[in-house]
Amino acid sequence: MDGHDTCGHHGHGPAAHGPARTAELVARAERLAQDLGLQFTALRRRTLEVVAEEGRPLGAYDIAERLSAPGKRVAAVSVYRALDFLTEHGLVHRIASRNAFVPCEHGHGAGESAVFLICRSCGSVDETISAEIERSLDRTLAQAGFKPASRIVEIEGECGTCQGRQEAG
Ligand SMILES: [Zn+2]
Ligand SMILES: [Zn+2]
């Protein structure tokens, strides 16, 4: 049993950010930690909140800086540990090409893939799920006899908004 009943496959529109999105992610994390009998520590929660509120990829050092208060520094290594927990449970994703973290835009099941569209101009990241990519990735992995640790596809380029901006300017 690996909790497949918990994956919400809602359709997704444009990436939503902000307080509602953050509250939803935190609630998801709380449920998940409870189900697994794990601790959703204050640092894990704060890290998730910072990533969710940012709306663009954030590195661990930036997160640590935001969590630090005068006289109370949070070490990047602690943030990395919190991020390990959050990525492991699909609450945030690591964008390898940026070494940065984004909140998960959907609830996916374990082993599901995500496709990230990363804009070089404005730095926005759009997460999407494709059943077609999922299927062909399954086939490719099976043919190669390869066991994936993560299934994340990153595509760099220019988002629709930035393309429009260039034409207008
Ligand atoms: Zn995701
Ligand atoms: Zn852009």
TrEMBL record:
Q: Which GO terms describe its biological process?
A: negative regulation of DNA-templated transcription; regulation of secondary metabolite biosynthetic process
Give the molecular function GO annotations.
Answer: DNA-binding transcription factor activity; transcription cis-regulatory region binding; zinc ion binding
Q: Which amino acids does the record list as binding Fe cation? A: E134
- Quote the cofactor binding remark: Binds 1 zinc ion per subunit. Binds 1 Mn(2+) or Fe(2+) ion per subunit.
What cofactors are annotated for this protein?
Zn(2+); Mn(2+); Fe(2+)
Where do the annotations place Zn(2+) binding? C119, C122, C159, C162
Q: Give the UniProt family note.
A: Belongs to the Fur family.
Q: What is the protein's given name?
A: Transcriptional repressor
Species source reads: Methylobacterium nonmethylotrophicum
Print the organism lineage: Bacteria, Pseudomonadati, Pseudomonadota, Alphaproteobacteria, Hyphomicrobiales
